[in-house]
Amino acid sequence: MAARPIASATISFGLVSIPIQLYSSSENSQKVRFNFLSPDGGRVKQQYVDPKTGDPVERSSLIKGYQFAKDQYVTFTTDELKALEAEATQAIDIVEFVPVDQVERVYIGKTYYLGPDKGGAKAYKLLGAAMEKTGWAALAKYAARGKQYLVLVRPVGDHLVMEQLHYAHEVRDMAEVPGGEGDVDATELTLATQLIEQIASEEFDPSKYKDEVGQRMLAAIEKKVADGSEITAPPEEEAKTQVIDLMEALKASVAKSESGPKKAKKPTRGKATKKAAGAK
Question: What is the third-level CATH fold of 7-27+85-170?
Answer without folding.
Answer: Ku70; Chain: A; Domain 2 (2.40.290)
